[in-house]
Amino acid sequence: MIGRSTPTPAERSAAEVSRAARQLLIRSRRRASGVFGGNYASAFRGAGMEFEESRPYSPGDDIRHFDWNALARTGEPFVKHYREERDATLSLALDVSASMAFGTTGRTKASTAAEAAALLAAAAGQAGDRVGLLCFADRALTAVPAARGRAHVGRVIELLFAASQAPGGGTRLATAADSLDSATRRASVVVLLSDFRDDALLTEESSASSALARMARHRDLVAAVLQDPRERELPRVGLLRLADPERPGRSVWLDTGSDRVRRRYRQAAEARRHTLEARLRGAGAEPLWLRTDRDPLQALQGFFQRRAARLHRGAA
């Protein structure tokens, strides 16, 4: 009798990763349906409007869409109606550098970012948009050209999950931005998911800022910033060693029992947040804040609603 041998640890790990990726795919598609998917489509509109038909005028119709040719032919007022021509592309860029492995709430920044990206990919797929992917650290690691289709979106979500499981290396935003600039089409939506732990971005006239600005010049750039609560405020746990995962050997001891130390840490974190937001907006990106202790679905939903309302006001 020939039986199946016991799987090795590596085989078990691969099987577990594959199973977890499928679960993320199913969950993302389910959660992206309905209102969430509709809000995505409203927040990220297509490339333009396509004429659909002329209809008899009704009180309240926009007179800017008057069909003068139909009026001349029939003597009756008609208005032109249009439908959105989406032809949209969503490009996801996931930071999988070492700092993204941090998390104190049961989820790391990388896994939170991957879940948010999976929701976006699923919503884009349901809207009929193309979806592309770039995973990066100090260099581009995984690149998937944008395409449509259920199977393609499934592959993107599986790659997102796999990449988020083993963060490593430094963060070079300029490299990611340059790769996206050359690989993505103009007028596409780019969502860059990162903790933006690239010190170069915080200095004026940096290569990272310039690269982001070049990419944002012809694209709709959303900067999804990942944060863990402990990056904003320290717990009172006595002496605590903080290490930089992207600079091995670099660490500092802090006395978290000191009110002064915790206050200065909180002030430094708040100052960095304000500086980062200013740099991102200055480069033409729209910041979106995501936290490891909160459901990314809620943050994305609020972002979509605010953005759709702003677009509606601008079109009015």
Question: What are the salient characteristics of this protein?
Answer:
single chain, 316 residues, alpha/beta, Rossmann fold, two-stranded antiparallel sheet, 9 helices
Would you give an account of this structure?
By secondary structure, this protein is of the alpha/beta class. The protein folds into 2 domains: 48-85, no CATH class; 89-315, Rossmann fold, CATH 3.40.50. Helix content is 43%, strand content 22%. The protein is built from 9 helices and 10 strands. The strands form 3 sheets. The protein has a 6-stranded mixed β-sheet, sandwiched between helices. Strands 1-2 form a two-stranded antiparallel sheet. The protein has a two-stranded antiparallel ribbon with strand order 8-9. Helix 2 (35-43) crosses helix 4 (109-126), helix 2 crosses helix 9 (296-315) and helix 4 packs antiparallel against helix 5 (150-164). The longest helix is centred in the C-terminal third of the chain and has 24 residues, at 259-282. The radius of gyration is 23 Å and the shape is elongated. The protein starts with 8 loop residues before the first helix and ends with a helix.
**CATH topology tier name of the largest domain:** Rossmann fold
**What is the total domain count?**
2
Strand content: 15-25%
- DSSP summary, beta strand count: 10
**Largest sheet, if any?**
6 strands, mixed
- Tell me the overall shape: elongated
Name of the CATH superfamily of the largest domain: von Willebrand factor, type A domain
The Cα radius of gyration reads 23 Å
Low-pLDDT ranges: 1-12
CATH architecture of the largest domain: 3-Layer(aba) Sandwich
Q: What's the order of the H and E elements?
A: HHEHEEHEEHHEHEEEHEH
How would you name the oligomeric state of the polypeptide chains in this document? single chain
Q: Which class do the helix and strand fractions yield?
A: alpha/beta
- Which range best describes the helical content: under 10%, 10-25%, 25-40%, 40-55%, 55-70% or over 70%? 40-55%
Overall pLDDT, averaged?
85
CATH class category label of the largest domain: Alpha Beta
Number of helices: 9
